[in-house]
Amino acid sequence: MSTQDLIASLLAKTELFGGLAADVLGDCAGSFREIRFTKGETIFVRGDPGNHLYLVVEGRVRLAVSTNEGRELSFRHAATGDLFGEIAMLDRGPRSADATALSHVVAYSLDRAALHTLWAKHTSISDRIVVFLCKRIRETSGQLESIALHPMHVRLARFLLVAIGDRKPAPNKRLPLDLGFSQGELALLLGASRPKINEALGTLESANAIARTLDRIFCDPAKLSEIARQGDD
């Protein structure tokens, strides 16, 4: 598979570019340029100009905001196939968060001028942008609701279900899940302290929804789903 075909296949699965015709995806893919980051490298910080969006091909990027007191809240990780940096690119505003490479990262970037050239050439991109922005607003509302209303073990169960995706366990088996980051990083993502996360993991373990080893979590999707639905009762 050529690099352009790889990029097009990844773009087809994103919220922003998914649904575009194959020829449009191919045209978009041809405008991306490879860029690499080392582990721990700052990609951009809040307030920087938002001149590029990025597509992750390999590695993991933390998106976080910091308070004046120095506290940090990770609200998202971008991994293989994920876009990040798209909001500032679209609205010409400054970056709204910090982006840091949690591992060696291989990504492809698209600059604003290239995006606007594609936008002018392919009007279907406008429809995708509207759908993308509306979905992002709904997701943000859902995140705020979850943080405000649901206990930590329910939030954690929902997070694990998203991480599992559509994988199914073998009969009478749990699904192994390697999150690829520390419990401290998980705490940042869920807006909690490490002790609260450890307590929530213990609650899920007591309910036989998960089992833990030193480096993995083994999940029972059915039991996690039952716990996740408790927040809707």
Task: Explain this structure.
- The protein is an alpha+beta fold and 233 residues long.
- The chain folds into 2 domains: 3-139, Jelly Rolls (Sandwich); 150-232, Orthogonal Bundle (Arc Repressor Mutant, subunit A), CATH 1.10.10.
- It has 9 helices and 11 strands.
- The strands form 3 sheets. A 4-stranded antiparallel sheet has the order 1-8-3-6. Strands 2-7-4-5 form a 4-stranded antiparallel sheet. It has a 3-stranded antiparallel sheet with strand order 9-11-10.
- A hairpin with a 4-residue loop joins strand 10 and strand 11 (217-219).
- Helix 6 crosses helix 8, helix 6 packs across helix 9 (221-229) and helix 7 (183-190) packs across helix 8 (194-206).
- It is globular, with a radius of gyration of 19 Å.
- The mean pLDDT is 84.
Write the layout of secondary structure elements.
Layout: H1 3-11, H2 22-29, E1 33-37, E2 42-44, E3 52-58, E4 61-66, E5 72-78, E6 83-84, H3 86-91, E7 98-101, E8 105-111, H4 112-121, H5 124-149, H6 152-164, E9 175-177, H7 183-190, H8 194-206, E10 210-212, E11 217-219, H9 221-229
Antiparallel strand pairs: 1-8, 2-7, 3-6, 3-8, 4-5, 4-7, 9-11, 10-11
